[in-house]
Amino acid sequence: MRSRFRFTVIAFAVLALAAPAFLLADGSQLGTISGRVLDEQGGGIPGVTVELVATDKGFRRSQTTDSTGSFTFALLQPGPYTLRASLSGFSTIEKTNNIAAADKVTNADVTMRLAATAEEVTVTGEIPMVDKTNTSATTTVSSTLTQKLAITRNYQTLISNAPGVTGGANPNSHGSLASTNQYLFDGVDTTDVTTGTFGQNFNFEAIEEVVVSTAGISAEYGRAQGAIVNVITKSGTNTFSGSAKGIVNNDEWDADNKGANHLTNPPTAWNRTKFDENVWRYALTLGGPMWKDHAWFFGAYEWADVPTPFSSTFSSPDKNWPGESYQQVTDVKLWDAKLTFQVTPSHLFTAGANSDPINGFVVDYWGGSGEREALTQQNQNDCGGLCTWNARWSGVFGSMFSMEALYAEQDGDIFVVPFEGNGSPYFSLSDELFYNGATFDGFVKRPRKQANLAANLYTQLFGDSHSFKVGGDYQDLESVASFLYPNNEIFIVSDFNPGPTNRGPVLSPGDVWQDFLDPAPSVSTGKVYGIYALDKFEVGKHLFFNLGGRVDIQNADSDIGNTVIDTTTFSPRLTGVYDVFGNGKTLVSTAYGRYYQFLVQAIADSVYAGVAQQANYDQYEWDGSTWVFAGQVVASGNTQPVNEDLEPSYLDEINVAVQQQLGNTMAVGVRGIYRKWNDLVDDRRVRNAAGTIIRVPENFDDDQLSQYYKGIEVTFDKRFSRNWQAAMNYTLSRAEGDIGGTGTAANFTTQRFDYADRTCTVAGVGNLPCSQALNQNQYGYLPYDRTHIFKAFTAYTLPLSWVAITAAPSFIWQSGFPYQPQRAATTAGIGTVGNYFFDKRGSSRLPNHYRLDFALETVFKPWGPLELGVKGEVFNLTNQQPQTSVVSIRLIPDANFGAPTARGAFQGPRNYRLTALLRF
Length: 920
Known about the structure:
There is one protein chain. The chain is mainly beta. The protein has a domain at 2-124: Immunoglobulin-like, CATH 2.60.40.1120. The chain has five helices and 61 strands. It has a 25-stranded antiparallel beta sheet that branches. β5 and β6 form a beta hairpin.
């Protein structure tokens, strides 16, 4: 054992020298096919020539089995392969349909028998449904299924297919906050550097599969406590293929809203005025060979103009002003391009680029706009045509060594501009509404550069197979914010006349004109580094281990140059697998892992930003005839002390799983998960003598802040075969703690430690020390806890001679979200500072509810590979409209506690969508 350990250390050292320290790899987008060539008695046969041919791309590799009969083909593009094993005196074996899957190892053992004459035997290969080299809680959502389902056309929806995942576009995974997931596109990290939420949309037609890992994650991945979401895009093959789709929906087709607001007298029905307009979306794809067997391309483009029903600005009864109607029309353009070069059988290059500008959102940032001119338009990821690009290389050197490298740049921008005109904003004191000017004219930019590298060594040690891997990553981050008022000024006036005649302000003595100084942009920067090492190895026929660890370094400087994060962490990751029958089909595994939080720009931007936006101005007052200078207001800047000892929180996770492959295309599994968070980050808010609110984040122990997750999940998966496919799972779980809400702010902004030196007032309770009022009943079920979740996504295709009909129901049943009675807690000079909980957090819960969606696709095959079809989708087929959200309900503990206050508290009504499609 001592010599084995010494060899492991030496192997890691050699690999570390081969991998530059400034690079890192976040897992592989490629697969591995490996196995042993055995004789009829089960012994390994050395010297066998094994050739592997890509079925759809044509390139081939070959190698000779080692002394144990083993072979390994690493860094393979995902897809089907044919394996051929030959040796003089033995029958030649051809094994077809061996599927290489991203970040998985497909077993392709071959048994050869002695043959007096040359003969060939053809057998069917394996689809890796369970994999002893990767027993993490991983859900692979393939396009073969998603293209059949009734589903929202974005990858964020696919994340919710995984067990233990709750919420919407930014979900909570196994008890983690919505801001602690990691979003990868072909290995490129696109997570928003400040909010921790998803940072990019994507062309739905370009997605090959989405791999969602939620527990037992290996050392390749770091700086995330929630789900690792890896979107893998399509590549071209040796066959030209493409598609064209026209997708249409119309609100007039859909069911009306049910229910009414019973807090009004009489109750106000929530029926809506339907918007009768066909809304079209178009999508095109094309892929094929550039150089047969060596180079391929794939491209996708999707565009749409998406109008919404008309909305209205606020009315002003005192001036007989009804407000103005307006409509949002978003301009959507999503494109993706990918080039793949298999230059030699052992060296693969890929280059990809994509962009996702969605322009035209209309937002009332004032919260009280009296006319269209006061609204703001938001344009997302308008990056000048290119938002993300990447270049990747992988190389295999003989049968023992391989490497991967990636470089990528991303630029996620949001621009906010006036919706109509570019006038200066006016705030009318008579009706407290805004007129004439938008809230913002500016932008947010969050560019990121990243580079990754990993090296692998495959070898035999004491008769056992080892796969050593080391890697590293580097990210250079920046967060830029720059905001003005239109014309860099704002007026606070007695009244404003928005009408067509005599339009303009009504001035009175004492009215204010704030003429803002030329602002500087707020620019914070960050750098993150990571290195990891692991060894995947077998011990005998039944035991397999993945032992690894990673070191992460996080550094960040605020926009005034202060270093606010400087931390180094170590994460051990350990997995043991028992292969019950030694055939890789029945696995019992246990894993321990430590996962750290990503802090960098979230802290730099949200806590320590010192370059104020829309804050410094010369103030003038109206004296009845002219504006008179009254003084200058200049923000003092951020004077908060920096906590130099701040560390990211971490969670310790233990999970135990049993996985069983059934046949060649099905698998079932049972997994138990326990997670405990430590050193949770929060702030203490105080108001100093100068009236400034100070926030200093710090780490808190279990006696002060705690968070737990316990869950059991059962899964069933079936890849497409015999005309049907399915993915089903059930989760029984509990998420408890006192960390607050589901959003980004809950990372470090609970109310538990705020204003401890002050007195809080709570209606119906009286005056209490804030330390008591803001700590009352804070521990309990977290806002995103769901005790029961059952999900089923299925599709069955009936193939006929000239037409194929596919029916695809999907069903989700789950417990309602928890909530509790509460009232606002206020303190003098500040206002509302938090909520007083009358009962334990999560003491009430919305009812259990379900949703059934259904799609029916009919595809005609008039000639050769050409397919023409139509697909109909019904969302919420049974038109269930239960209360599903706690955002818009009454939380005051009275007779109406729990009653909905807005239509948004309910599940959406039944709606329809039609698609005309062409494929070849």
